[in-house]
Design brief:
This protein is an alpha/beta fold. Helix content is about 35%, strand content about 25%. A seven-stranded mixed sheet has the order 3-2-1-4-5-7-6, sandwiched between helices.
């Protein structure tokens, strides 16, 4: 599940099944994670700056557009995915269904981006929040994806502001994920704090929010 072609096939097949667009959510939708995300968007880094938010591996999820719609402070939401098919589907959907932001200054964009290349799209210390809902899980569970998962974490920590946050939503047990996050950050020579909260149970599976902050 770390290959671009896999996701292109997945989204092409999903869109061919219906004539009307429907968002697809890994794990759960925005309402389940709203209380983890929105409190992190209460303070601007500068008086007139937009808060930079990245929905990493967005697919055709509604999470990014919902952040754009509900954030009281102006945000610049970048929904990034490796699949150009997913990006095109979301662009066409948003064009056909106007999403009104809470703040008129807010921006929303969809970009084709390999998340191991975050540093080529965002400058160091420029991002306030990165949302990772299942992307790292998909990499860690792929035969050749573990190295990419480590690299993605490294890129995230590079582009985050010192006051920024990375939220990983996952069904992986905290004993395993906390250790992986702490070990990877240490191995990369990055100082980071790692916390965890339970999101809840869905269809018999318990999900967690891992909160990583540079320090």
């Amino acid at each position: 599940m770390d290959k671009k072609e896999t996701w292109d096939r997945f989204y092409a097949k999903s869109s061919s099944r219906t004539t009307s667009f429907k968002n697809f959510e890994w794990f759960f939708g925005f309402d389940a994670v709203r209380d983890f995300i929105m409190p992190l968007l209460q303070t601007r880094p500068h008086s007139n700056a937009l808060l930079r938010v990245v929905d990493m591996g967005c697919g055709i999820s509604a999470v990014g557009p919902c952040i754009y719609r509900h954030s009281p402070l102006p945000v610049w939401v970048t929904c990034a995915d490796i699949s150009p098919i997913a990006v095109k589907l979301m662009q066409e959907h948003i064009r056909g269904k106007a999403v009104e932001p809470h703040s008129l200054s807010s921006k929303l964009e969809f970009v084709e981006l390999d998340c191991t290349q975050l540093h080529k799209h965002f400058s160091s210390g420029s991002v306030d929040l990165i949302v990772d809902k299942g992307t790292t899980d998909a990499l860690l569970r792929s035969e050749e994806g573990k190295g990419k998962a480590s690299l993605v974490l490294k890129r995230c920590l590079k582009v985050l502001r010192s006051s920024g946050s990375l939220l990983q939503f996952s069904d992986e047990d905290p004993d395993a994920r906390m250790l992986w996050l702490e070990t990877e950050a240490h191995n990369q020579g990055v100082m980071a704090s790692v916390g965890v909260q339970e999101v809840g149970e869905l269809r018999g599976v318990c999900y967690y929010c891992y909160h990583v902050t540079p320090r």
